[in-house]
Amino acid sequence: MVSHAHSDIHGEVAERLRIAGQRYTTKRRTIIDLLAGVGQPMSIADLLERRNDLPQSSLYRNLVVLEESGVVSKVVTTGDQARYELAEHLTGHHHHLLCSSCGAVRDVVVPDALEHELDNALGKLAKREGFTLDRHRLDLIGRCSSCQ
Ligand SMILES: [Zn+2]
Ligand SMILES: [Zn+2]
User: Fold this and answer.
1) What is the tens place of the pLDDT at every residue in 50-73?
2) CATH topology of domain 93-148
3) 27-39: per-residue pLDDT in tens?
4) Helices of type H across the chain
5) Which of 76, 78, 107, 113 is at 20 to 30 A from 98, Cα to Cα?
C-alpha cells in the first residue's frame, strides 16, 4: 500500500472532518492511527483487541462519523463482520483479497500496467452501457494460501 506519512494523513483527516462540521477528537485520532498503523482492513473486534480502552459503542459511533466524513471506508467481506480501512485518497488505490474459508482480508496493490488493462476493459463495458466510468472497486474472493 502506498502510505503517506502519518502527519499528512492527520492533516487531511482534520480538513475533511472540518468540512463535514466534525471535530478531530483524540478518540478519532486514535482510530485513524490504528488503521494507518496496521494498513489492513480491521473489524471492530480487531480494533478493540488492540485498544481495549475504547468503549465499543463510542468506537462504533466514531467510525460512523469517520465514514460519513469520507476518511474511512467500509470493506464488504465474505463474513458477517464489516471491516474498516482508511479511504483511498489517504492510502492509495488498491484491491482486496477475501478468503471465503477463514475470512482473512488482505490489501493488494495491482501493478500499474494491469490497472491500466483493467481500466480499459471496464471503460469499454461502461461505454457499452452508456455509463461514464470515474473509478472502480474490485475485490477478489477465493482461498488464501493457508486455506488452499
Ligand atoms: Zn484463509
Ligand atoms: Zn484498481
Assistant:
1) 988 888 999 999 999 999 999 999
2) Dna Ligase; domain 1 (3.30.1490)
3) 999 999 999 998 8
4) 6-19, 26-38, 44-50, 56-68, 88-91, 112-128
5) 113
Ligand nearest to the CA of 119: 2
Average the pLDDT over 136-148 and give the result.
94
For the chain, give the number of residues.
148
Ligand nearest to the CA of 111: 2
CATH 1.10.10.10 fits 1-92, yes or no: yes
**What distance in angstroms lies between residue 23's CA and the mean position of ligand 2's atoms?**
32
pTM of the model: 0.85
Q: Count CA within 13 A, CB hemisphere, residue 56.
A: 6
